[in-house]
Fold this sequence. Notes:
Blueprint: E1 5-8, H1 20-28, E2 31-34, H2 37-47, E3 53-55, H3 62-73, E4 78-81, H4 94-102, E5 107-110, H5 115-121, E6 131-135, H6 140-151, E7 157-161, H7 166-175, E8 179-184, E9 192-195, E10 207-212
Parallel strand pairs: 1-4, 1-5, 2-3, 2-4, 6-7
Antiparallel strand pairs: 7-10, 8-9, 8-10
Amino acid sequence: xxxxxxxxxxxxxxxxxxxxxxxxxxxxxxxxxxxxxxxxxxxxxxxxxxxxxxxxxxxxxxxxxxxxxxxxxxxxxxxxxxxxxxxxxxxxxxxxxxxxxxxxxxxxxxxxxxxxxxxxxxxxxxxxxxxxxxxxxxxxxxxxxxxxxxxxxxxxxxxxxxxxxxxxxxxxxxxxxxxxxxxxxxxxxxxxxxxxxxxxxxxxxxxxxxxxx
Length: 213
């Protein structure tokens, strides 16, 4: 009988956002697969959880993926986490989730924090629908093409962006005539949420940007 792959959401920044169910799953899994074992190790230390942690950032190497699928087939219960928020969303954990589903291994969501839903709920959007773009290509024609594609649908679009490129992104969105809401460091001490008004944005922290026609 196969084990379960638990897809476990963890806090974006504020530790109080961890759910009781997430704590139980992390405690009782045979091991945890983490985007960065050092980041997750810090979280587990604060929670007093001793479960072993392994990194999954090398899932592009087939042998690592197959190893964990075999462990699941042999009855191991594995918890998948990202550095923050919900795994497998703009995150390499998606490869393991896909492989588990293809092999008929139970994939069980442990819902919790998500930058996408947190940002959209605080964006003031009047729309009932949105598109999630994740990270755009970093530069060049590919970046312009992807941006144009997402804006063409006429729906609010949620982007993740790096500090180095966030000013470039919002300037492009402003030229396209979008209403822009910027979220910096969601749930953390220096959290900022504001409608973009042409200001220079501090290039520090993690960014989620919503552009609405």
